[in-house]
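Example record used in the benchmark description.
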Amino acid sequence: MLQMTSEHEELRRTILKFIADEINPHVDEWEKAEIFPAHEVFRKMGDLGLLGITKPVAYGGMGLDYSYGAVLNETTSHINCGGVPMAIGVQTDMATPALARFGSPELCNEFLAPSITGEFVACIGVSEPGAGSDVASIRTRAVRDGDDYVINGSKMWITNGTQADWMCMLANTGDGPVHRNKSLICVPLKEGGKRAKGVSVTRKLKKMGMHSSDTAELHFDNVRVPVRNLIGEEGKGFTYQMMQFQEERLYAALGGIVSCELTIAETIDYTRQRKAFGKSILDNQVVHFRMAELSTEVEALRALTWKAVEIHVDGGDCTKLASMAKLKACRLSREVNDACLQYWGGMGFMDETPVSRRYRDGRLGSIGGGADEVMLGIISKYMGTLPGKG
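Model output (structure tokens):
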């Protein structure tokens, strides 16, 4: 079984101190502005090595196994909002894993190395206005023209979209079967500090939650990108992206553990102090029993998630357990935030309380990175219970 070492705990302390000093004091301001200074924050994280924990030493990373990356993903949930941890997760676990695994040395030097230092902000371009969880149905095309790809299409719900320097884009590079006609391409979004030719931010999206994360729709009009920006082999993009999704889903599960724990702990503190009908809210059996039930569920989630991490670290196929962990974490987050908000009464409906923000931010989990229904489909496939699967 995977064991935490003193090195894991030292990393956790470093992250917690950085959050306390450099992030949480500014979160309320960033939430109101509906954006945070990604380049500034990421450069500071890069100076501490936090953006390249699992990335190759050759490009400035620490070269550690994923258990250390899991500590980062778990600990960033101590940030007092969901938007900033999500932006960090995009940089470390969504836009760069395939590049680190399959990118050429030249491509890694151009895009991965500055993403590890925080000089570049990255984004992942998979979803489109007509294709969310159904990745195979994307329509953006990258057509070969000499030594370039010419890209046309749109990408939707892009985290870091207004600030990103480059995108790890999934695009159709052929007309064959939908699972074998796609490629991952590093697409520069800026040139000399300005928007790259043919790239436009169609709109910055206003969302129900995750307010401090700048999320955008981007359009690509005859954008020329060198063929050398291809990650790995042409036509393997769908496969690479499915691999990349596993770390994205583990990120979601790991973050859900701490987020739920914080909400439960804060609710216990509040209901212990809050009086109604002559006694504290917590003294009601229905309340303290509910906290006990939810805490038990969180511990079960922790065991499931870290088992998936262990399999991933050992080089095994964690797809089934990672899908289970994401499904459980995102549904449990909804349950915990909703149940706990109720015990805060009117204060739970106020923006000033953390449970209110987690209630709004946490709802995205069951949609992004593969909706709950997609996770159920994957789990069913591995169980052999899909129709016609025996």
